[in-house]
Amino acid sequence: MIIVTAGAAYLDIDAYAGCIAYAELLNLSGRPARALSSAPLNESIPQGFRDSLKGLDRHVPEGADQFVLVDISNHLHLDPLVDLARVIEVIDHHPGFEAFWDERLGKYADIRPIGAACTQVYERWRDSGLLPRISHDSAQLLAAGILDNTLNFSGRSWTTADRQAYAALATHAGLGPQWPEAYFQQCQQQIEAQLPQALLKDLKVLEASSNLPRRFAQLTLWQGEGLLARQRHLIEQVLGQWGDDWLLNLISLSEGKSYLLTGSPGSARKLERLLECSARDGVHCLARPILRKELLRKGLALQAVP
Q: What's the structural domain count of the chain?
């Protein structure tokens, strides 16, 4: 059995959809597979998706199971069910661990700069010749993963391949032009209903080599300015419980902005080394949406400069 899984901290829509859709493809290809995770789902996966679309499988891993990793390549933060020695494939778009996996898996480590891991999974469907047989649920899930990770194609972290993948999947799943806004509004309603949990479910702990604050949270909303004004004190309480070296990237898609809130002047200075943007009342406002992975690439590149 092949177990398709992701990271330990939380499961976002890119990882969730990628695991489910890739397990479906492996099964159609004659390779028994299950999509599994022990991580909590974050708010990029609306309750409606959880209730009505295909979800994760139930399976107790056995000693002979092999593992495919989706949307994760940091071997220090894998789902605890993973046996590192039995990982056979990695599908990811986050930088930093390419050399580790290239040495172990060679061509079976697909780690590259692209908008979404869901695009990489879509390409496997396309190249297999089985795309006409993809389920409606998997097509819709992959489409949502691409939208979320490309910020509805408003950020810079997307490629032509992401756009082509979304177009094909939207056609297959019958998704109209208003569907992206409806999806993001569902996510925002869920985030606002349980904001502390939403922050913690999309929080990454970074190494000093990232040149970013130690803890980096990210929320993608349809309209972010109002939430920040209403809930800033609560946000600061939740993210400050381990200290003041933290950063929140609050993405506001309808405004086309990112609001970057830091926990301390030191955290703000780390951010200012990577970005040129104005600060007002402790909030840096970037006049375009930016993703955490883009900031991470900038931080790692800063480290590499002699």
A: 2
Buried b or exposed e, range 147-186, using 16+ CB within 10 angstroms: bbbbbbeebebbbebbeebbebbbebbebeeebbeebbbb
| E strand or H helix at 296 | helix 292-304
Q: Please say which residue of 131, 152, 183 terminates a domain.
A: 183
Rg (C-alpha) for the chain, rounded Å, is 19
Question: Same structural domain for residues 119 and 224?
Answer: no
Q: Is the pTM of this model over 0.70?
A: yes
Do residues 245 and 103 both lie within one domain? no
Q: How far is CA 190 from CA 49, 207, 261, in A?
A: 12, 30, 21
Each residue's pLDDT tens digit, 94-146: 888 999 999 999 999 999 999 999 999 999 999 999 999 999 999 999 999 99
Q: Residue 237: inside a domain, yes or no? A: yes
What lies within 8 Å, CB to CB, of 196 at 6+ separation is 234, 238
d(CA 8, CA 84): 13
Strands 246-252 and 33-35: unpaired
Q: Is residue 155 part of a domain?
A: yes
The answer, yes or no, to whether residue 305 has pLDDT greater than 60, is no
Report the amino acid identity of residue 235.
I
DSSP 78: B
pLDDT score recorded for residue 96 = 87
What residue ranges in the chain does DSSP mark as E strands?
Answer: 2-5, 33-35, 66-70, 87-92, 109-111, 203-205, 215-221, 246-252, 257-262, 279-280, 283-286
**236/298 same-domain check:** yes
Question: What pLDDT does residue 166 have?
Answer: 99
Between CA 74 and CA 96 the distance in angstroms is 8
Which of 149, 183, 217 is where one domain is finished? Answer: 183
Q: Give residue 71's domain range.
A: 2-183
